[in-house]
Amino acid sequence: MSWIDEQLMKHIFVYSKDPFDPVIVNNIPNGWKLIGKGNFAAVFTHPSLDGKVVKVYAENREGITEEIMVYKKLGEHNAYSRLYEYGERYLVLKKLEGITLYQAFSTGTFIQKTVIEDVDKAIHFAKSKGLNPTDIHGKNITMKDGKGYIVDVSDFLKTYSCPKWKHFKRGYYLIYLPLFKNIRIPFPHWLLERIRKSYQFYLLVTGFRRKQELYSNKNRSNLS
Predict the structure, then answer these.
(1) Right CATH number for 11-94 from 3.30.200, 2.60.40, 1.10.760, 1.20.1070?
(2) Which keywords does UniProt give here (predicted)?
(3) What is the model's pTM?
Protein backbone atom coordinates (compact mmCIF):
# COMPACT_ATOMS: atom_id res chain seq x y z
CA MET A 1 0.00 0.00 0.00
CA SER A 2 3.00 2.35 -0.42
CA TRP A 3 1.12 4.08 -3.26
CA ILE A 4 -1.18 5.58 -0.61
CA ASP A 5 1.83 7.28 0.96
CA GLU A 6 2.90 8.59 -2.45
CA GLN A 7 -0.49 9.66 -3.83
CA LEU A 8 -2.34 10.72 -0.67
CA MET A 9 -0.22 11.12 2.45
CA LYS A 10 2.48 13.29 0.84
CA HIS A 11 -0.14 15.87 -0.17
CA ILE A 12 -3.09 15.73 2.20
CA PHE A 13 -3.41 18.10 5.15
CA VAL A 14 -5.54 16.89 8.07
CA TYR A 15 -5.45 18.97 11.24
CA SER A 16 -7.51 18.97 14.44
CA LYS A 17 -8.13 22.49 15.70
CA ASP A 18 -10.52 21.44 18.48
CA PRO A 19 -10.83 17.89 19.87
CA PHE A 20 -14.63 18.29 19.93
CA ASP A 21 -15.07 19.55 16.35
CA PRO A 22 -14.42 17.91 12.95
CA VAL A 23 -10.89 18.07 11.57
CA ILE A 24 -9.77 20.56 8.93
CA VAL A 25 -8.89 18.97 5.56
CA ASN A 26 -6.98 20.62 2.70
CA ASN A 27 -4.95 19.62 -0.40
CA ILE A 28 -6.99 16.59 -1.42
CA PRO A 29 -5.20 15.03 -4.45
CA ASN A 30 -7.02 14.40 -7.73
CA GLY A 31 -8.95 11.14 -7.73
CA TRP A 32 -9.46 11.11 -3.96
CA LYS A 33 -12.81 11.98 -2.41
CA LEU A 34 -13.48 13.06 1.16
CA ILE A 35 -16.53 11.17 2.47
CA GLY A 36 -16.41 11.86 6.20
CA LYS A 37 -14.75 13.83 8.98
CA GLY A 38 -14.48 13.06 12.67
CA ASN A 39 -12.81 14.96 15.48
CA PHE A 40 -9.47 13.17 15.05
CA ALA A 41 -9.48 11.84 11.46
CA ALA A 42 -10.93 12.07 7.96
CA VAL A 43 -12.06 9.29 5.60
CA PHE A 44 -11.37 9.12 1.85
CA THR A 45 -12.23 6.92 -1.11
CA HIS A 46 -10.41 6.29 -4.39
CA PRO A 47 -11.66 4.51 -7.57
CA SER A 48 -8.93 1.87 -7.22
CA LEU A 49 -10.03 0.96 -3.67
CA ASP A 50 -12.99 -1.28 -4.39
CA GLY A 51 -15.08 -1.60 -1.23
CA LYS A 52 -12.40 0.06 0.92
CA VAL A 53 -11.71 3.46 2.44
CA VAL A 54 -8.64 5.19 3.88
CA LYS A 55 -8.94 6.79 7.30
CA VAL A 56 -6.27 9.45 7.85
CA TYR A 57 -5.49 10.70 11.35
CA ALA A 58 -4.83 14.38 11.95
CA GLU A 59 -1.13 15.12 12.14
CA ASN A 60 -1.54 16.51 15.68
CA ARG A 61 -3.63 13.69 17.13
CA GLU A 62 -2.72 10.31 18.63
CA GLY A 63 -4.86 7.18 18.62
CA ILE A 64 -4.08 5.16 15.52
CA THR A 65 -2.14 2.51 17.46
CA GLU A 66 -5.09 1.98 19.79
CA GLU A 67 -7.54 1.73 16.89
CA ILE A 68 -5.40 -0.94 15.22
CA MET A 69 -5.46 -2.93 18.47
CA VAL A 70 -9.26 -2.61 18.65
CA TYR A 71 -9.78 -3.97 15.14
CA LYS A 72 -7.47 -6.90 15.86
CA LYS A 73 -9.51 -7.70 18.98
CA LEU A 74 -12.84 -7.36 17.20
CA GLY A 75 -11.94 -9.64 14.30
CA GLU A 76 -14.82 -9.90 11.84
CA HIS A 77 -18.34 -8.83 12.71
CA ASN A 78 -21.05 -7.63 10.33
CA ALA A 79 -21.73 -4.43 12.31
CA TYR A 80 -18.11 -3.26 12.21
CA SER A 81 -15.58 -2.42 9.54
CA ARG A 82 -12.50 -4.57 8.93
CA LEU A 83 -8.84 -3.55 8.98
CA TYR A 84 -6.90 -4.53 5.83
CA GLU A 85 -3.71 -2.48 6.03
CA TYR A 86 -2.23 0.50 7.85
CA GLY A 87 0.55 3.05 7.72
CA GLU A 88 2.00 5.58 10.12
CA ARG A 89 -1.10 7.82 10.06
CA TYR A 90 -3.70 5.90 8.05
CA LEU A 91 -5.85 2.78 8.09
CA VAL A 92 -7.29 0.93 5.09
CA LEU A 93 -10.73 -0.26 6.13
CA LYS A 94 -13.75 -2.05 4.71
CA LYS A 95 -16.25 0.52 3.46
CA LEU A 96 -19.54 0.51 5.34
CA GLU A 97 -22.31 1.65 3.01
CA GLY A 98 -25.26 3.80 4.01
CA ILE A 99 -25.80 7.14 5.72
CA THR A 100 -25.02 8.25 9.26
CA LEU A 101 -27.84 8.78 11.73
CA TYR A 102 -26.88 12.47 11.69
CA GLN A 103 -27.50 12.50 7.92
CA ALA A 104 -30.77 10.64 8.44
CA PHE A 105 -31.97 13.42 10.72
CA SER A 106 -30.93 16.08 8.20
CA THR A 107 -32.71 14.40 5.27
CA GLY A 108 -35.80 13.21 7.12
CA THR A 109 -34.91 9.55 6.54
CA PHE A 110 -36.60 7.39 9.15
CA ILE A 111 -34.31 5.50 11.55
CA GLN A 112 -35.78 2.05 12.04
CA LYS A 113 -35.75 0.36 15.43
CA THR A 114 -33.71 -2.51 13.96
CA VAL A 115 -30.81 -0.07 13.48
CA ILE A 116 -30.79 0.68 17.21
CA GLU A 117 -31.04 -3.03 18.03
CA ASP A 118 -28.09 -3.85 15.72
CA VAL A 119 -25.94 -1.27 17.47
CA ASP A 120 -26.88 -2.72 20.86
CA LYS A 121 -25.82 -6.18 19.66
CA ALA A 122 -22.56 -4.79 18.29
CA ILE A 123 -21.81 -3.13 21.63
CA HIS A 124 -22.50 -6.39 23.44
CA PHE A 125 -20.13 -8.21 21.05
CA ALA A 126 -17.35 -5.68 21.64
CA LYS A 127 -17.74 -6.05 25.40
CA SER A 128 -17.46 -9.83 25.03
CA LYS A 129 -14.04 -9.21 23.42
CA GLY A 130 -12.87 -7.24 26.46
CA LEU A 131 -13.43 -3.81 24.87
CA ASN A 132 -15.25 -0.76 26.24
CA PRO A 133 -17.44 0.77 23.49
CA THR A 134 -17.37 4.56 23.92
CA ASP A 135 -18.15 7.70 21.89
CA ILE A 136 -21.08 6.06 20.08
CA HIS A 137 -23.37 8.72 18.67
CA GLY A 138 -25.23 9.81 15.54
CA LYS A 139 -22.15 10.61 13.46
CA ASN A 140 -20.44 7.32 14.31
CA ILE A 141 -23.30 5.05 13.25
CA THR A 142 -24.42 4.32 9.71
CA MET A 143 -27.55 2.57 8.51
CA LYS A 144 -28.61 0.84 5.31
CA ASP A 145 -31.70 -1.27 4.59
CA GLY A 146 -32.71 -1.25 8.24
CA LYS A 147 -29.32 -2.44 9.50
CA GLY A 148 -27.00 -0.50 11.81
CA TYR A 149 -23.19 -0.28 11.77
CA ILE A 150 -20.63 1.30 14.09
CA VAL A 151 -18.04 3.10 11.95
CA ASP A 152 -15.65 4.45 14.62
CA VAL A 153 -14.04 2.18 17.21
CA SER A 154 -11.04 4.38 18.03
CA ASP A 155 -12.08 4.92 21.67
CA PHE A 156 -12.91 1.31 22.53
CA LEU A 157 -9.77 0.88 24.68
CA LYS A 158 -10.58 3.83 26.93
CA THR A 159 -11.69 3.04 30.46
CA TYR A 160 -14.23 5.73 31.32
CA SER A 161 -17.97 5.13 31.21
CA CYS A 162 -19.51 6.94 28.22
CA PRO A 163 -23.18 8.01 28.40
CA LYS A 164 -23.64 9.08 24.76
CA TRP A 165 -25.34 5.97 23.40
CA LYS A 166 -27.55 5.63 26.48
CA HIS A 167 -28.69 9.24 26.03
CA PHE A 168 -29.22 8.76 22.28
CA LYS A 169 -31.38 5.69 22.84
CA ARG A 170 -33.44 7.44 25.49
CA GLY A 171 -34.16 10.31 23.09
CA TYR A 172 -34.91 7.86 20.29
CA TYR A 173 -37.50 5.83 22.20
CA LEU A 174 -39.08 8.68 24.19
CA ILE A 175 -39.18 11.42 21.53
CA TYR A 176 -38.09 10.40 18.04
CA LEU A 177 -39.96 7.11 17.58
CA PRO A 178 -43.38 8.34 18.84
CA LEU A 179 -43.21 11.61 16.85
CA PHE A 180 -41.59 10.53 13.58
CA LYS A 181 -42.76 6.96 13.06
CA ASN A 182 -45.41 8.10 10.59
CA ILE A 183 -44.08 11.47 9.41
CA ARG A 184 -40.81 12.47 7.73
CA ILE A 185 -39.41 15.89 8.64
CA PRO A 186 -35.82 16.88 7.83
CA PHE A 187 -33.92 18.72 10.55
CA PRO A 188 -32.02 21.81 9.28
CA HIS A 189 -28.25 21.71 9.67
CA TRP A 190 -28.21 24.72 12.00
CA LEU A 191 -30.63 22.98 14.37
CA LEU A 192 -28.62 19.74 14.42
CA GLU A 193 -25.44 21.69 15.15
CA ARG A 194 -27.16 23.63 17.91
CA ILE A 195 -28.32 20.34 19.47
CA ARG A 196 -24.80 18.93 19.13
CA LYS A 197 -23.20 21.96 20.76
CA SER A 198 -25.82 22.05 23.51
CA TYR A 199 -25.15 18.40 24.27
CA GLN A 200 -21.41 19.07 24.42
CA PHE A 201 -22.12 21.86 26.89
CA TYR A 202 -24.25 19.47 28.94
CA LEU A 203 -21.37 17.00 29.04
CA LEU A 204 -19.03 19.80 30.12
CA VAL A 205 -21.35 20.89 32.92
CA THR A 206 -21.83 17.32 34.14
CA GLY A 207 -18.08 16.71 34.10
CA PHE A 208 -17.92 14.02 31.41
CA ARG A 209 -16.18 16.20 28.82
CA ARG A 210 -13.58 17.16 31.44
CA LYS A 211 -12.96 13.46 32.09
CA GLN A 212 -12.39 12.95 28.35
CA GLU A 213 -9.88 15.81 28.26
CA LEU A 214 -8.01 14.51 31.30
CA TYR A 215 -7.88 11.01 29.82
CA SER A 216 -6.61 12.33 26.48
CA ASN A 217 -3.93 14.47 28.17
CA LYS A 218 -2.82 11.53 30.34
CA ASN A 219 -2.70 9.21 27.33
CA ARG A 220 -0.73 11.78 25.33
CA SER A 221 1.79 12.09 28.18
CA ASN A 222 2.26 8.33 28.33
CA LEU A 223 2.94 8.23 24.60
CA SER A 224 5.51 11.04 24.68
Answers:
(1) 3.30.200
(2) Kinase, Serine/threonine-protein kinase, Transferase
(3) 0.84
